[in-house]
UniProtKB/TrEMBL annotation, chain A:
FAD binds at R205, G261, I262, S263, G264, A265, I266, Q267, H268, N282. This is Electron transfer flavoprotein subunit alpha/FixB family protein. Pfam families: ETF, ETF_alpha. One of its GO terms (molecular function) is flavin adenine dinucleotide binding. The keyword Membrane does not apply. Its cofactor is FAD. Keywords: Electron transport, FAD, Flavoprotein, Transport. InterPro entries: DHS-like_NAD/FAD-binding_dom, ETF_a/b_N, ETF_a/FixB, ETF_asu_C, Rossmann-like_a/b/a_fold. It comes from Neotamlana laminarinivorans. Binds 1 FAD per dimer. Gene3D superfamilies: HUPs, TPP-binding domain. One of its GO terms (biological process) is fatty acid beta-oxidation using acyl-CoA dehydrogenase. Belongs to the ETF alpha-subunit/FixB family. The keyword Oxidoreductase does not apply.
From TrEMBL, chain B:
One of its GO terms (molecular function) is electron transfer activity. Residues 23-212 form the Electron transfer flavoprotein alpha/beta-subunit N-terminal domain. Keywords: Electron transport, Transport. This is Electron transfer flavoprotein subunit beta. Belongs to the ETF beta-subunit/FixA family. It comes from Neotamlana laminarinivorans. SMART domains: ETF. The keyword Metal-binding does not apply.
Length: 319, 248
Protein backbone atom coordinates (compact mmCIF):
# COMPACT_ATOMS: atom_id res chain seq x y z
CA UNK A 1 0.00 0.00 0.00
CA UNK A 2 1.22 3.49 -0.79
CA UNK A 3 0.08 6.89 -2.04
CA UNK A 4 1.18 7.72 -5.58
CA UNK A 5 1.40 11.31 -6.77
CA UNK A 6 1.85 12.46 -10.34
CA UNK A 7 4.27 15.40 -10.21
CA UNK A 8 4.06 17.44 -13.39
CA UNK A 9 6.92 19.25 -14.97
CA UNK A 10 7.39 21.64 -17.85
CA UNK A 11 10.69 21.51 -19.79
CA UNK A 12 12.12 19.33 -17.04
CA UNK A 13 11.22 21.77 -14.24
CA UNK A 14 8.59 20.80 -11.68
CA UNK A 15 5.50 23.00 -11.68
CA UNK A 16 4.44 24.59 -8.41
CA UNK A 17 1.34 22.39 -8.55
CA UNK A 18 3.65 19.35 -8.36
CA UNK A 19 4.84 20.44 -4.93
CA UNK A 20 1.28 21.17 -3.85
CA UNK A 21 -0.01 17.69 -4.84
CA UNK A 22 3.07 16.15 -3.19
CA UNK A 23 2.20 18.01 0.03
CA UNK A 24 -1.36 16.74 -0.27
CA UNK A 25 -0.23 13.16 -0.89
CA UNK A 26 1.99 13.35 2.20
CA UNK A 27 -1.00 14.44 4.33
CA UNK A 28 -3.02 11.41 3.15
CA UNK A 29 -0.09 9.04 3.57
CA UNK A 30 0.36 10.23 7.17
CA UNK A 31 -3.29 9.45 7.89
CA UNK A 32 -2.97 6.04 6.27
CA UNK A 33 0.38 5.31 7.91
CA UNK A 34 2.14 4.75 4.61
CA UNK A 35 4.66 6.33 2.23
CA UNK A 36 4.50 8.63 -0.79
CA UNK A 37 5.86 7.64 -4.19
CA UNK A 38 6.01 10.24 -6.95
CA UNK A 39 5.91 9.47 -10.66
CA UNK A 40 7.91 12.05 -12.63
CA UNK A 41 8.17 12.07 -16.42
CA UNK A 42 11.23 13.69 -18.00
CA UNK A 43 11.78 15.88 -14.93
CA UNK A 44 15.11 17.02 -13.49
CA UNK A 45 16.03 17.56 -9.86
CA UNK A 46 13.71 14.86 -8.50
CA UNK A 47 15.31 15.25 -5.05
CA UNK A 48 13.38 18.54 -4.69
CA UNK A 49 10.22 16.49 -4.10
CA UNK A 50 11.66 15.24 -0.80
CA UNK A 51 11.07 18.68 0.70
CA UNK A 52 7.33 18.13 0.26
CA UNK A 53 7.15 14.66 1.80
CA UNK A 54 7.91 12.35 -1.13
CA UNK A 55 9.81 9.23 -0.05
CA UNK A 56 10.55 7.72 -3.43
CA UNK A 57 10.51 9.03 -6.99
CA UNK A 58 9.93 6.82 -10.00
CA UNK A 59 11.76 8.69 -12.71
CA UNK A 60 10.81 8.07 -16.32
CA UNK A 61 13.12 9.43 -19.00
CA UNK A 62 11.74 8.75 -22.43
CA UNK A 63 11.90 10.82 -25.62
CA UNK A 64 8.55 9.48 -26.83
CA UNK A 65 6.97 11.26 -23.86
CA UNK A 66 8.61 14.61 -24.61
CA UNK A 67 5.29 16.13 -25.60
CA UNK A 68 2.31 15.39 -23.44
CA UNK A 69 0.07 12.55 -24.56
CA UNK A 70 -2.85 11.85 -22.23
CA UNK A 71 -3.23 8.17 -23.04
CA UNK A 72 0.50 7.39 -22.85
CA UNK A 73 0.94 9.37 -19.62
CA UNK A 74 -2.11 7.64 -18.11
CA UNK A 75 -0.58 4.26 -19.03
CA UNK A 76 2.71 5.22 -17.38
CA UNK A 77 0.96 6.33 -14.18
CA UNK A 78 -1.16 3.18 -14.21
CA UNK A 79 1.95 0.97 -14.36
CA UNK A 80 3.55 2.99 -11.55
CA UNK A 81 0.38 2.59 -9.44
CA UNK A 82 0.40 -1.16 -9.99
CA UNK A 83 4.11 -1.47 -9.22
CA UNK A 84 3.71 0.51 -5.99
CA UNK A 85 0.45 -1.15 -5.04
CA UNK A 86 -1.01 2.36 -4.67
CA UNK A 87 -4.44 2.70 -3.12
CA UNK A 88 -4.63 6.47 -3.54
CA UNK A 89 -3.38 8.44 -6.53
CA UNK A 90 -3.12 12.22 -6.35
CA UNK A 91 -3.10 14.49 -9.41
CA UNK A 92 -3.39 18.26 -9.91
CA UNK A 93 -6.09 20.26 -11.67
CA UNK A 94 -3.93 21.34 -14.60
CA UNK A 95 -5.38 20.95 -18.09
CA UNK A 96 -3.09 17.95 -18.64
CA UNK A 97 -3.94 16.19 -15.37
CA UNK A 98 -7.68 16.69 -15.92
CA UNK A 99 -7.16 15.24 -19.40
CA UNK A 100 -5.42 12.06 -18.28
CA UNK A 101 -7.24 11.36 -14.99
CA UNK A 102 -10.49 9.95 -16.50
CA UNK A 103 -8.39 7.60 -18.69
CA UNK A 104 -6.44 6.51 -15.61
CA UNK A 105 -9.72 6.04 -13.75
CA UNK A 106 -10.97 3.61 -16.40
CA UNK A 107 -7.59 1.87 -16.62
CA UNK A 108 -7.41 1.20 -12.87
CA UNK A 109 -11.16 0.88 -12.29
CA UNK A 110 -10.62 3.64 -9.73
CA UNK A 111 -13.15 6.24 -8.65
CA UNK A 112 -12.00 9.80 -9.33
CA UNK A 113 -13.01 12.97 -7.51
CA UNK A 114 -11.96 16.21 -9.23
CA UNK A 115 -11.68 19.78 -7.89
CA UNK A 116 -10.96 18.60 -4.36
CA UNK A 117 -10.16 21.51 -2.06
CA UNK A 118 -9.11 19.94 1.24
CA UNK A 119 -7.50 16.93 2.85
CA UNK A 120 -9.94 13.97 3.03
CA UNK A 121 -12.49 14.38 5.83
CA UNK A 122 -11.93 10.71 6.54
CA UNK A 123 -9.98 7.95 4.83
CA UNK A 124 -12.35 5.13 5.86
CA UNK A 125 -14.87 5.73 4.37
CA UNK A 126 -12.85 7.87 1.95
CA UNK A 127 -14.59 11.24 1.84
CA UNK A 128 -13.37 14.40 0.17
CA UNK A 129 -14.74 17.91 -0.18
CA UNK A 130 -14.92 19.32 -3.70
CA UNK A 131 -16.45 22.30 -5.42
CA UNK A 132 -19.64 21.78 -7.43
CA UNK A 133 -22.28 23.88 -9.16
CA UNK A 134 -19.51 26.07 -10.53
CA UNK A 135 -18.33 27.18 -7.10
CA UNK A 136 -21.82 27.84 -5.79
CA UNK A 137 -21.68 24.79 -3.49
CA UNK A 138 -19.38 22.19 -1.98
CA UNK A 139 -20.00 18.50 -2.29
CA UNK A 140 -18.78 15.80 0.07
CA UNK A 141 -18.03 12.83 -2.17
CA UNK A 142 -17.24 9.35 -1.02
CA UNK A 143 -14.99 7.32 -3.29
CA UNK A 144 -16.10 3.72 -2.88
CA UNK A 145 -13.74 1.85 -5.23
CA UNK A 146 -10.62 0.07 -3.89
CA UNK A 147 -8.24 2.43 -5.69
CA UNK A 148 -9.03 6.13 -5.46
CA UNK A 149 -7.94 9.10 -7.57
CA UNK A 150 -8.01 12.58 -6.06
CA UNK A 151 -7.68 15.67 -8.28
CA UNK A 152 -6.57 18.59 -6.10
CA UNK A 153 -7.71 22.08 -7.00
CA UNK A 154 -4.74 24.42 -7.58
CA UNK A 155 -3.82 26.75 -4.70
CA UNK A 156 -6.28 25.00 -2.37
CA UNK A 157 -3.95 23.02 -0.13
CA UNK A 158 -0.75 25.01 -0.40
CA UNK A 159 2.83 23.84 0.01
CA UNK A 160 3.81 22.01 3.18
CA UNK A 161 7.49 21.38 3.75
CA UNK A 162 8.66 18.36 5.70
CA UNK A 163 12.16 17.28 6.57
CA UNK A 164 12.35 14.08 4.58
CA UNK A 165 14.44 13.08 1.61
CA UNK A 166 13.45 11.32 -1.57
CA UNK A 167 15.27 8.44 -3.22
CA UNK A 168 15.12 8.20 -7.00
CA UNK A 169 14.59 5.02 -8.98
CA UNK A 170 14.71 4.67 -12.76
CA UNK A 171 11.41 3.40 -14.10
CA UNK A 172 10.90 2.09 -17.65
CA UNK A 173 7.23 1.38 -18.24
CA UNK A 174 5.95 0.16 -21.57
CA UNK A 175 4.67 3.00 -23.75
CA UNK A 176 1.60 2.47 -25.97
CA UNK A 177 1.44 3.64 -29.59
CA UNK A 178 0.76 7.36 -29.71
CA UNK A 179 -2.41 7.73 -31.71
CA UNK A 180 -2.47 11.49 -31.33
CA UNK A 181 0.34 13.52 -32.87
CA UNK A 182 1.13 17.04 -31.76
CA UNK A 183 1.50 19.24 -34.86
CA UNK A 184 2.18 22.58 -33.23
CA UNK A 185 2.19 24.29 -29.85
CA UNK A 186 1.39 27.94 -29.40
CA UNK A 187 2.38 28.98 -25.91
CA UNK A 188 3.62 32.24 -24.48
CA UNK A 189 6.70 31.02 -22.62
CA UNK A 190 7.54 34.33 -20.95
CA UNK A 191 4.16 34.73 -19.27
CA UNK A 192 2.61 33.17 -16.20
CA UNK A 193 -0.37 31.02 -17.23
CA UNK A 194 -3.76 31.56 -15.61
CA UNK A 195 -3.78 28.00 -14.29
CA UNK A 196 -0.40 28.31 -12.57
CA UNK A 197 -0.79 31.89 -11.34
CA UNK A 198 -1.15 32.82 -7.69
CA UNK A 199 -2.36 36.25 -8.74
CA UNK A 200 -4.56 37.06 -11.73
CA UNK A 201 -5.21 40.59 -13.03
CA UNK A 202 -8.27 40.77 -15.23
CA UNK A 203 -9.75 43.53 -17.39
CA UNK A 204 -13.27 44.12 -18.66
CA UNK A 205 -15.14 46.34 -21.05
CA UNK A 206 -14.64 49.27 -18.68
CA UNK A 207 -11.13 49.59 -20.13
CA UNK A 208 -12.71 50.90 -23.35
CA UNK A 209 -10.32 49.32 -25.85
CA UNK A 210 -7.39 46.97 -26.43
CA UNK A 211 -5.00 49.92 -26.59
CA UNK A 212 -5.52 50.45 -22.85
CA UNK A 213 -4.23 47.04 -21.77
CA UNK A 214 -0.71 48.31 -21.12
CA UNK A 215 -1.54 49.19 -17.53
CA UNK A 216 -3.14 45.80 -16.93
CA UNK A 217 0.06 44.15 -18.11
CA UNK A 218 2.17 46.53 -16.03
CA UNK A 219 0.13 45.74 -12.92
CA UNK A 220 0.47 42.01 -13.66
CA UNK A 221 4.21 42.40 -14.06
CA UNK A 222 4.66 44.15 -10.71
CA UNK A 223 2.70 41.36 -9.02
CA UNK A 224 4.12 38.44 -11.02
CA UNK A 225 0.54 37.80 -12.09
CA UNK A 226 -1.20 36.33 -15.13
CA UNK A 227 -3.47 38.54 -17.24
CA UNK A 228 -7.06 37.61 -17.99
CA UNK A 229 -10.21 39.21 -19.36
CA UNK A 230 -14.00 39.02 -19.28
CA UNK A 231 -16.09 37.36 -21.98
CA UNK A 232 -17.19 40.55 -23.82
CA UNK A 233 -13.55 41.58 -24.12
CA UNK A 234 -12.58 38.30 -25.80
CA UNK A 235 -15.77 38.31 -27.92
CA UNK A 236 -14.87 41.81 -29.15
CA UNK A 237 -11.42 40.53 -30.06
CA UNK A 238 -9.62 42.97 -27.75
CA UNK A 239 -7.80 40.09 -26.09
CA UNK A 240 -7.15 36.46 -27.13
CA UNK A 241 -9.73 33.81 -26.22
CA UNK A 242 -7.12 32.07 -24.10
CA UNK A 243 -7.41 34.94 -21.60
CA UNK A 244 -11.19 34.65 -21.23
CA UNK A 245 -12.09 33.57 -17.69
CA UNK A 246 -15.56 32.67 -16.48
CA UNK A 247 -18.03 29.84 -16.79
CA UNK A 248 -17.36 29.11 -20.46
CA UNK A 249 -13.75 30.30 -20.32
CA UNK A 250 -10.88 29.27 -18.12
CA UNK A 251 -11.58 28.63 -14.45
CA UNK A 252 -9.57 30.69 -11.98
CA UNK A 253 -8.56 29.54 -8.50
CA UNK A 254 -5.88 32.07 -7.64
CA UNK A 255 -4.98 33.48 -4.25
CA UNK A 256 -5.71 37.01 -5.45
CA UNK A 257 -7.98 38.08 -8.33
CA UNK A 258 -8.06 41.74 -9.33
CA UNK A 259 -10.97 42.75 -11.57
CA UNK A 260 -10.62 46.04 -13.41
CA UNK A 261 -13.64 47.49 -15.18
CA UNK A 262 -15.57 44.21 -14.90
CA UNK A 263 -19.18 44.54 -13.75
CA UNK A 264 -19.41 40.95 -12.48
CA UNK A 265 -21.99 39.05 -14.52
CA UNK A 266 -23.06 35.81 -12.84
CA UNK A 267 -21.25 33.73 -15.50
CA UNK A 268 -18.03 35.63 -14.84
CA UNK A 269 -18.30 35.30 -11.07
CA UNK A 270 -19.03 31.56 -11.37
CA UNK A 271 -15.69 31.05 -13.09
CA UNK A 272 -13.55 33.09 -10.70
CA UNK A 273 -15.27 32.51 -7.39
CA UNK A 274 -12.80 29.86 -6.32
CA UNK A 275 -10.19 32.62 -5.94
CA UNK A 276 -9.46 33.31 -2.31
CA UNK A 277 -9.30 37.11 -2.29
CA UNK A 278 -11.05 39.30 -4.82
CA UNK A 279 -10.43 42.99 -5.47
CA UNK A 280 -12.64 45.08 -7.74
CA UNK A 281 -11.88 48.44 -9.29
CA UNK A 282 -14.91 49.99 -10.96
CA UNK A 283 -16.49 53.43 -11.42
CA UNK A 284 -19.97 52.04 -10.74
CA UNK A 285 -20.58 51.35 -7.02
CA UNK A 286 -23.69 49.35 -8.03
CA UNK A 287 -21.66 46.87 -10.11
CA UNK A 288 -22.52 43.32 -8.91
CA UNK A 289 -18.83 42.55 -8.48
CA UNK A 290 -18.78 44.65 -5.28
CA UNK A 291 -21.06 42.03 -3.68
CA UNK A 292 -18.62 39.25 -4.52
CA UNK A 293 -15.39 41.12 -3.73
CA UNK A 294 -13.41 41.34 -0.50
CA UNK A 295 -11.89 44.72 -1.31
CA UNK A 296 -13.19 47.38 -3.64
CA UNK A 297 -12.18 50.73 -5.02
CA UNK A 298 -14.93 52.89 -6.52
CA UNK A 299 -12.98 54.94 -8.99
CA UNK A 300 -11.75 55.44 -12.51
CA UNK A 301 -9.45 52.58 -13.50
CA UNK A 302 -7.39 54.95 -15.64
CA UNK A 303 -6.42 56.83 -12.46
CA UNK A 304 -6.53 54.04 -9.89
CA UNK A 305 -4.49 51.41 -11.73
CA UNK A 306 -1.42 53.57 -12.55
CA UNK A 307 -1.44 54.89 -8.96
CA UNK A 308 -1.73 51.35 -7.60
CA UNK A 309 1.21 50.25 -9.76
CA UNK A 310 3.35 53.00 -8.19
CA UNK A 311 2.28 52.05 -4.65
CA UNK A 312 3.03 48.38 -5.32
CA UNK A 313 6.42 49.18 -6.79
CA UNK A 314 7.28 51.15 -3.65
CA UNK A 315 6.00 48.28 -1.50
CA UNK A 316 8.00 45.68 -3.42
CA UNK A 317 11.14 47.83 -3.19
CA UNK A 318 10.74 47.91 0.59
CA UNK A 319 10.35 44.14 0.92
CA UNK B 1 -20.18 9.93 -40.53
CA UNK B 2 -22.21 9.12 -37.43
CA UNK B 3 -21.94 11.76 -34.72
CA UNK B 4 -23.14 11.32 -31.15
CA UNK B 5 -23.50 14.44 -29.01
CA UNK B 6 -23.83 13.84 -25.27
CA UNK B 7 -26.26 16.26 -23.67
CA UNK B 8 -26.23 16.95 -19.96
CA UNK B 9 -29.43 18.35 -18.48
CA UNK B 10 -28.28 21.07 -16.07
CA UNK B 11 -29.74 23.96 -14.07
CA UNK B 12 -29.50 27.30 -15.83
CA UNK B 13 -26.58 29.46 -14.65
CA UNK B 14 -28.86 31.97 -12.95
CA UNK B 15 -30.62 29.27 -10.86
CA UNK B 16 -30.63 29.46 -7.11
CA UNK B 17 -28.68 26.47 -5.84
CA UNK B 18 -30.41 24.80 -2.87
CA UNK B 19 -30.46 21.31 -1.41
CA UNK B 20 -33.12 19.09 0.20
CA UNK B 21 -33.24 15.81 2.16
CA UNK B 22 -30.73 16.95 4.79
CA UNK B 23 -28.60 18.59 2.11
CA UNK B 24 -28.15 15.33 0.24
CA UNK B 25 -30.05 16.18 -2.95
CA UNK B 26 -30.14 19.11 -5.34
CA UNK B 27 -33.44 20.97 -4.99
CA UNK B 28 -34.97 21.13 -8.48
CA UNK B 29 -37.95 23.13 -7.27
CA UNK B 30 -38.43 26.15 -9.52
CA UNK B 31 -35.18 25.46 -11.39
CA UNK B 32 -35.00 26.02 -15.13
CA UNK B 33 -33.03 23.26 -16.88
CA UNK B 34 -30.99 23.82 -20.03
CA UNK B 35 -28.55 22.04 -22.32
CA UNK B 36 -25.15 22.16 -20.60
CA UNK B 37 -23.36 25.14 -22.26
CA UNK B 38 -20.22 23.12 -23.05
CA UNK B 39 -22.40 20.51 -24.77
CA UNK B 40 -24.25 23.15 -26.77
CA UNK B 41 -21.02 24.38 -28.40
CA UNK B 42 -20.39 20.76 -29.44
CA UNK B 43 -23.93 20.30 -30.75
CA UNK B 44 -23.58 23.38 -32.94
CA UNK B 45 -20.22 22.15 -34.27
CA UNK B 46 -21.90 18.81 -35.07
CA UNK B 47 -24.66 20.65 -37.00
CA UNK B 48 -22.01 22.38 -39.10
CA UNK B 49 -20.33 19.07 -39.88
CA UNK B 50 -23.73 17.67 -40.88
CA UNK B 51 -24.55 20.61 -43.12
CA UNK B 52 -21.15 21.00 -44.78
CA UNK B 53 -19.89 17.42 -45.01
CA UNK B 54 -22.90 15.23 -44.45
CA UNK B 55 -23.36 13.39 -41.17
CA UNK B 56 -26.09 12.10 -38.93
CA UNK B 57 -26.33 13.70 -35.51
CA UNK B 58 -27.77 11.76 -32.58
CA UNK B 59 -28.11 13.33 -29.14
CA UNK B 60 -28.05 11.24 -25.97
CA UNK B 61 -28.70 11.76 -22.30
CA UNK B 62 -28.61 9.45 -19.29
CA UNK B 63 -31.49 10.28 -16.98
CA UNK B 64 -35.18 10.05 -16.17
CA UNK B 65 -38.13 11.29 -18.26
CA UNK B 66 -37.68 14.80 -16.81
CA UNK B 67 -34.66 15.29 -19.10
CA UNK B 68 -36.68 14.80 -22.31
CA UNK B 69 -37.51 18.50 -22.84
CA UNK B 70 -33.75 19.17 -22.95
CA UNK B 71 -33.31 16.44 -25.59
CA UNK B 72 -36.27 17.88 -27.54
CA UNK B 73 -34.55 21.25 -27.52
CA UNK B 74 -31.44 19.63 -29.03
CA UNK B 75 -33.69 18.07 -31.69
CA UNK B 76 -35.24 21.49 -32.35
CA UNK B 77 -31.73 22.89 -32.85
CA UNK B 78 -31.28 20.28 -35.58
CA UNK B 79 -30.19 16.88 -34.28
CA UNK B 80 -31.76 13.97 -36.22
CA UNK B 81 -32.73 11.71 -33.36
CA UNK B 82 -32.34 11.28 -29.63
CA UNK B 83 -31.68 8.50 -27.17
CA UNK B 84 -32.46 8.64 -23.48
CA UNK B 85 -30.85 5.93 -21.38
CA UNK B 86 -33.50 5.38 -18.77
CA UNK B 87 -31.62 5.40 -15.48
CA UNK B 88 -30.61 7.89 -12.82
CA UNK B 89 -27.19 9.46 -13.35
CA UNK B 90 -25.47 8.07 -10.23
CA UNK B 91 -21.93 9.25 -10.88
CA UNK B 92 -19.67 10.09 -13.82
CA UNK B 93 -18.49 6.50 -14.17
CA UNK B 94 -21.95 4.95 -14.48
CA UNK B 95 -23.00 7.69 -16.93
CA UNK B 96 -19.88 7.10 -19.01
CA UNK B 97 -20.53 3.36 -18.96
CA UNK B 98 -24.08 3.82 -20.28
CA UNK B 99 -22.83 6.24 -22.94
CA UNK B 100 -19.99 3.92 -23.96
CA UNK B 101 -22.57 1.20 -24.47
CA UNK B 102 -24.61 3.53 -26.72
CA UNK B 103 -21.41 4.31 -28.67
CA UNK B 104 -20.57 0.62 -29.15
CA UNK B 105 -24.12 -0.36 -30.09
CA UNK B 106 -24.56 2.53 -32.52
CA UNK B 107 -21.07 2.45 -34.04
CA UNK B 108 -20.49 6.20 -33.83
CA UNK B 109 -17.40 7.73 -35.44
CA UNK B 110 -17.32 11.00 -33.55
CA UNK B 111 -18.53 11.54 -30.00
CA UNK B 112 -18.76 15.10 -28.69
CA UNK B 113 -19.38 15.83 -25.02
CA UNK B 114 -18.80 19.03 -23.05
CA UNK B 115 -15.47 19.25 -21.19
CA UNK B 116 -17.55 19.41 -18.00
CA UNK B 117 -21.12 19.95 -16.88
CA UNK B 118 -21.88 23.16 -15.03
CA UNK B 119 -23.61 21.31 -12.18
CA UNK B 120 -21.24 18.63 -10.86
CA UNK B 121 -18.18 19.95 -12.75
CA UNK B 122 -16.67 16.46 -12.78
CA UNK B 123 -14.97 16.81 -16.15
CA UNK B 124 -14.72 13.04 -16.46
CA UNK B 125 -17.40 11.72 -18.78
CA UNK B 126 -15.71 12.40 -22.16
CA UNK B 127 -12.40 10.85 -21.06
CA UNK B 128 -14.13 7.87 -19.50
CA UNK B 129 -16.13 7.20 -22.69
CA UNK B 130 -12.84 7.26 -24.61
CA UNK B 131 -11.21 4.91 -22.09
CA UNK B 132 -14.14 2.50 -22.15
CA UNK B 133 -14.46 2.42 -25.95
CA UNK B 134 -10.70 2.69 -26.66
CA UNK B 135 -11.35 5.63 -28.96
CA UNK B 136 -8.92 8.54 -29.35
CA UNK B 137 -9.61 11.49 -27.11
CA UNK B 138 -8.98 15.24 -27.27
CA UNK B 139 -10.04 17.28 -24.25
CA UNK B 140 -10.62 21.05 -23.90
CA UNK B 141 -11.16 21.11 -27.65
CA UNK B 142 -11.49 24.58 -29.23
CA UNK B 143 -11.19 23.67 -32.90
CA UNK B 144 -12.09 20.58 -34.90
CA UNK B 145 -11.83 19.67 -38.58
CA UNK B 146 -12.66 16.21 -39.93
CA UNK B 147 -11.57 14.85 -43.30
CA UNK B 148 -12.46 11.27 -44.08
CA UNK B 149 -11.28 9.35 -41.04
CA UNK B 150 -8.64 11.83 -39.95
CA UNK B 151 -9.17 14.72 -37.56
CA UNK B 152 -7.27 17.86 -36.77
CA UNK B 153 -8.11 19.29 -33.37
CA UNK B 154 -6.94 22.26 -31.34
CA UNK B 155 -6.90 21.94 -27.59
CA UNK B 156 -6.47 24.58 -24.95
CA UNK B 157 -3.44 23.96 -22.75
CA UNK B 158 -2.29 25.92 -19.71
CA UNK B 159 -0.85 29.10 -21.18
CA UNK B 160 -1.75 28.50 -24.81
CA UNK B 161 -3.04 25.96 -27.28
CA UNK B 162 -1.81 22.99 -29.26
CA UNK B 163 -2.90 21.45 -32.54
CA UNK B 164 -2.98 17.68 -32.88
CA UNK B 165 -3.85 15.19 -35.59
CA UNK B 166 -5.54 11.88 -34.97
CA UNK B 167 -8.05 9.46 -36.42
CA UNK B 168 -11.66 8.44 -35.89
CA UNK B 169 -13.28 7.05 -33.82
CA UNK B 170 -12.68 10.09 -31.67
CA UNK B 171 -14.12 11.49 -28.45
CA UNK B 172 -14.06 15.27 -28.01
CA UNK B 173 -14.28 17.12 -24.68
CA UNK B 174 -15.73 20.31 -26.14
CA UNK B 175 -16.01 23.89 -25.01
CA UNK B 176 -16.41 27.43 -26.34
CA UNK B 177 -14.15 27.82 -29.34
CA UNK B 178 -15.56 24.77 -31.16
CA UNK B 179 -18.02 27.45 -32.18
CA UNK B 180 -18.52 30.90 -30.70
CA UNK B 181 -21.40 32.03 -28.52
CA UNK B 182 -22.79 34.06 -31.43
CA UNK B 183 -22.95 30.86 -33.51
CA UNK B 184 -25.31 29.09 -31.10
CA UNK B 185 -28.76 28.48 -32.55
CA UNK B 186 -32.02 29.38 -30.93
CA UNK B 187 -34.70 26.88 -32.01
CA UNK B 188 -37.31 28.47 -34.27
CA UNK B 189 -40.98 27.47 -34.46
CA UNK B 190 -40.38 25.16 -37.42
CA UNK B 191 -37.54 23.44 -35.58
CA UNK B 192 -39.69 23.00 -32.50
CA UNK B 193 -42.57 21.54 -34.56
CA UNK B 194 -40.21 19.16 -36.37
CA UNK B 195 -38.57 18.11 -33.11
CA UNK B 196 -41.89 16.72 -31.88
CA UNK B 197 -41.89 14.21 -34.72
CA UNK B 198 -38.25 13.18 -34.54
CA UNK B 199 -37.52 9.82 -32.89
CA UNK B 200 -36.64 9.85 -29.20
CA UNK B 201 -35.71 6.32 -28.21
CA UNK B 202 -35.81 5.25 -24.59
CA UNK B 203 -33.04 2.71 -24.09
CA UNK B 204 -32.78 0.42 -21.10
CA UNK B 205 -29.56 0.77 -19.05
CA UNK B 206 -26.84 -1.83 -18.69
CA UNK B 207 -25.47 -2.86 -15.28
CA UNK B 208 -23.01 -0.36 -13.88
CA UNK B 209 -21.70 0.12 -10.35
CA UNK B 210 -20.92 3.61 -9.13
CA UNK B 211 -17.41 4.38 -7.91
CA UNK B 212 -18.30 7.59 -6.12
CA UNK B 213 -21.23 8.60 -4.04
CA UNK B 214 -22.44 12.10 -3.33
CA UNK B 215 -22.91 12.28 0.45
CA UNK B 216 -23.91 15.84 1.27
CA UNK B 217 -23.75 19.36 -0.08
CA UNK B 218 -23.02 22.60 1.66
CA UNK B 219 -23.23 26.17 0.56
CA UNK B 220 -20.33 28.57 1.06
CA UNK B 221 -20.57 30.69 4.20
CA UNK B 222 -22.21 34.03 3.42
CA UNK B 223 -19.54 36.46 2.40
CA UNK B 224 -18.91 39.53 4.51
CA UNK B 225 -19.41 42.98 3.03
CA UNK B 226 -16.75 44.39 0.75
CA UNK B 227 -14.14 46.61 2.36
CA UNK B 228 -14.07 49.81 0.35
CA UNK B 229 -10.86 51.76 -0.05
CA UNK B 230 -10.89 55.35 -1.31
CA UNK B 231 -9.14 55.84 -4.67
CA UNK B 232 -6.80 58.38 -3.06
CA UNK B 233 -5.85 55.98 -0.27
CA UNK B 234 -4.30 53.09 -2.19
CA UNK B 235 -1.56 52.67 0.42
CA UNK B 236 -4.34 51.25 2.54
CA UNK B 237 -5.24 48.71 -0.18
CA UNK B 238 -1.62 47.56 -0.39
CA UNK B 239 -1.52 47.36 3.40
CA UNK B 240 -4.74 45.29 3.55
CA UNK B 241 -3.58 42.89 0.84
CA UNK B 242 -0.27 42.43 2.62
CA UNK B 243 -1.21 42.37 6.30
CA UNK B 244 -4.84 41.29 6.39
CA UNK B 245 -5.38 39.11 3.31
CA UNK B 246 -1.70 38.08 3.16
CA UNK B 247 -1.77 37.59 -0.59
CA UNK B 248 1.07 39.92 -1.62
Amino acid sequence: MSVLVYTESDQGVFKKAAFEVASYAKAIATDLGTTVTAIAINANNTAALGTYGVDKVLQVNNDTLKTFNANAYAQVIKQAAEKENATVIVVSSSADSKYLAPLLSVGLNAGYASNVIAKPESTSPFKVKRTAFTNKAFEITEITSDVKIVGVSNNSFGLVETSSSASTEEFSPSIPDLKITVESVDKASDKVSIADAEIVVSGGRGLKGPENWGMVEDLAEVLGAATACSKPVSDLGWRPHSEHVGQTGKPVASNLYIAIGISGAIQHLAGINASKVKVVINTDPEAPFFKAADYGVVGDAFEVVPALIEKLKAFKAQQ
Amino acid sequence: MKILVCISHVPDTTSKINFTDSNSKFDTNGVQFVINPNDEFGLTRAMWLKEKQGASVTVVNVGGPETEPTLRKALAIGADDAIRVNTAALDSFTVAKQLANVVKTGGYDLIIAGRESIDYNGGMVPGMIAGLTEANFVNNCIGLEIEGTTAKATREIDGGKETVSTTLPLVIGGQKGLVEESDLRIPNMRGIMMARKKPLTVAEPIDATAQTNSVTFEKPAPKGAVTLVAPDNLDELVNLLHNEAKVI
